[in-house]
Specification:
Layout: H1 7-19, E1 22-23, H2 27-43, E2 49-54, H3 56-62, H4 76-86, H5 101-113, E3 116-120, E4 128-135, E5 138-145, E6 151-156, E7 159-162, H6 177-180, H7 185-194, H8 201-220, H9 227-235, H10 239-255, E8 262-263, H11 269-286, H12 290-311, H13 319-334, H14 339-353, H15 365-384, H16 401-415, H17 417-428
Parallel strand pairs: 2-3
Antiparallel strand pairs: 1-8, 2-4, 4-5, 5-6, 6-7
Helix pairs in contact: 1-12, 2-4, 3-17, 4-5, 7-12, 7-14, 8-10, 8-11, 9-10, 10-11, 10-15, 11-12, 11-13, 11-15, 12-13, 12-16, 13-14, 13-15, 14-15, 14-16
Length: 431
């Protein structure tokens, strides 16, 4: 039984606090805006020119999404201009959450009148952003690696003025692995059963409030492809449909420039909404009360994070699958089900939908979210109606839920690298 004396107890709390943070806008363009704001801060003045060097996955996830508070601008240049002109680096992923109307005009003007060069990063890192800026004879550079707020170097005029632990080489995200390696599905369920809610309620209440608000926005106004609204119009309003529609509607709004914040999971707002909103909808329908909802969100968030730990922040594997899987685990918990059913739900879901690829952040993410939640619900229902399941040796399924999770992580992280490159080539070639 988990208690506060177990080292994993405090680790799980730290994981939730580190992962469930607010962000305004799609996190990849916001990471660029954050880096740009830090580079301007280091330079001391508004730059005369800027260069953005970034890995393929960053290019893929910034290309088609609207950057909030810019007057519906898209792309790397818009994200960099927003951070340079109006970004507040002290609030990290909410760096452009408070932009005045005059600043929106200034962002567009700066983008159109100042050189912003975009070049691909030639190295092997999946997540890499380097912002270089110049004004007169002065220059500054900020490097972000591995995850969205992980600044590994700041330079002023070629001299390193910040690096983790005082040295200049980049910090590897693997340094966090010992805590994340403590995650397992069985221990996650045990932790959810016994965690003192005082230790998690602040981050979870914020997740409920922020993500519910943007879902409501997506369901009541014309954002994106209106996937959430379409689901309700076409399929009715029972809880199964509402669960899919809420998560999709949040993405409808967020991918198309809505300025409302979301609470992210594994560096992704779409995953944060997918892991939480279906659970919230089922909790309301089942009338289970706040305590059960919070414990179920512990399950859904940590199951999502557990899967993403072996995949990495960015890949060709659609993260909505991991989050839809997490949501289904949380919904099973709401129904009073324990480790065995939750484990089979996860394996069934991964067997059904692990082939869905990520082709960047854009309005169609909402449709993928709906399909991921549907797959999760199907995986759950398979098992509770007759203990139907997929077995070890059938495709990528292995014996034991954590082994299957590791297998999917290996496939996504290693096996889909060429797929990732081909997707990027397709996305960037002339139409």
């Amino acid at each position: 039984m988990f208690d506060r004396t177990d080292p994993a107890y405090s680790a799980y709390i730290r994981i939730l606090e580190a992962e469930l943070i607010p962000a305004t806008g799609c996190t990849e363009p916001i990471a660029i805006a954050y880096g740009a704001a830090k580079a301007r801060q280091a330079l001391g003045v508004l730059p005369e020119k800027c260069r953005v060097e970034c890995s393929g996955n960053i290019i893929k996830n910034v290309k088609s999404v609207v950057v909030p508070n810019t007057g519906y601008l898209r792309g790397i240049e818009a994200a960099a201009a927003a951070g340079l002109v109006a970004g507040d680096p002290d609030v990290q992923l909410q760096v452009i959450s408070h932009v005045a109307e005059k600043d929106r005009e200034a962002i567009r003007a700066y983008r159109d009148s100042h050189p912003i060069e975009v070049i691909p990063y030639p190295g092997d890192k999946v997540f890499y952003i380097a912002l270089s800026v110049w004004a007169g004879t002065d220059s500054a550079k900020v490097v972000i690696e591995d995850f969205h707020t992980n600044i590994t170097r700041i330079e002023k005029n070629g001299v390193c003025c910040f690096a983790p632990e005082g040295d200049c080489p980049g910090q590897d995200e693997a340094e966090e692995a010992p805590e994340y390696d403590l995650l397992s599905v069985e221990r996650i369920v045990d932790f959810a059963d016994h965690v003192d809610l005082f230790d998690v309620e602040v981050v979870l209440d914020r997740q409920i409030a922020y993500n519910t608000a943007i879902a409501r926005e997506g369901l009541t106004h014309d954002w994106g492809a209106r996937i959430g609204q379409t689901l309700l119009l076409a399929q009715g309003d029972d809880v199964r449909v509402r669960a899919k529609a809420a998560a999709a509607a949040g993405s409808d709004a967020r991918m198309s420039g809505c300025e409302m914040p979301v609470v992210i999971v594994s560096g992704s707002g779409n995953q944060g909404m997918t892991a939480s909103l279906p659970v919230i909808e089922y909790a309301k329908a089942l009338n289970v009360g706040r305590e059960k909802l919070l414990r179920a969100l512990v399950v859904s968030n940590l199951v999502t994070i557990h899967q993403k730990t072996s995949i990495g922040r960015l890949s060709a594997f659609c993260g909505a699958v991991s989050a839809g899987c997490g949501a289904a685990a949380g919904i099973a918990y709401l129904h009073g089900d324990g480790y065995e059913i939750i484990a089979h739900t996860i394996v069934n879901t991964l067997a059904i939908l692990s082939g869905m690829v990520c082709d960047g952040a854009k309005p169609s993410c909402a449709g993928k979210i709906a399909m991921a939640v549907e797959a999760g619900l199907m995986g759950y229902e398979m098992y509770i109606h007759g203990q139907n399941q997929f077995y070890s040796g059938e495709g990528i399924v292995k014996k034991g839920v954590d082994n299957t999770i590791r297998t999917v992580g290996r496939m996504a992280r290693e096996g889909m690298r060429d797929t990732d490159r081909e997707i990027l080539d397709i996305m960037t070639e002339s139409c």
